């Protein structure tokens, strides 16, 4: 048999194999569980209060500080520009009249109540201006009568008012069961609790009507009505 000119294949023992000290490349979660620095390629152990070694922890902290400073600077410049353009100081959209923010930012910040109070005051003044008393003592309102279906805003206002009333009743009922009625017999407490939960369920349904009306959720069929 002729001898082959190809070099003999020998096992390479220079590279680490499974079972050696080096376990091979590990992922982020594996390195984190082993207490090693999660920075790829770093052989050091992580700090007890961090996921990286002291060197990389400090680098990460410097990077975050630099990013925060850059964001604050960009935000400051943007607000300065928006103030000159009479735009919303929160996002740059068109602001509301007599406000520094747009309606989206006002609602998102939970400050829409101030707009409602102001609107209610304006509506009340408009109704008072259009109201007069006849010689016979009857109160007349010179409003604009319209036939047909109520507006979406009117339907929303009615549903949300009902939801608010039932929600408050449910909250008061559950609070009473947990405090003032705590010493009553169990049957009475369970009955009061059921009544309070029924109020909360009604509030949930009224809120659902508003969400369905605006296409946020699909109509839900009640199990009792199905």
What labels would you give this structure?
226 residues, mainly alpha, two-stranded antiparallel sheet, 6 helices, 2 strands, 51% helix, 3% strand, flat
Protein described:
A two-stranded antiparallel sheet has the order 1-2. With 226 residues, it is an all-alpha fold. 51% of the residues lie in helices and 3% in strands. It is built from six helices and two strands; from the N terminus they run ααααββαα. About 8% of the residues have low confidence. Helix 5 runs antiparallel to helix 6. It is flat, with a radius of gyration of 34 Å. It has three domains: 54 residues, no CATH class; 46 residues, no CATH class; 62 residues.
Oligomer: single chain
Count of helical segments? Answer: 6
Provide the number of structural domains.
3
Largest sheet: 2 strands, antiparallel
Nearest-integer average pLDDT:
75
Q: How would you summarize the topology of this molecule?
A:
Blueprint (H helix, E strand, L loop, with lengths): L27 H6 L20 H31 L18 H6 L3 H18 L1 E3 L5 E3 L10 H27 L7 H28 L13
Antiparallel strand pairs: 1-2
Helix pairs in contact: 5-6
Short note summarizing the structure:
This protein has 226 residues and is an all-alpha fold. It has helices at residues 28-33, 54-84, 103-108, 112-129, 152-178, 186-213, and strands at 131-133, 139-141. It has three domains: 28-81, no CATH class; 86-131, no CATH class; 152-213.
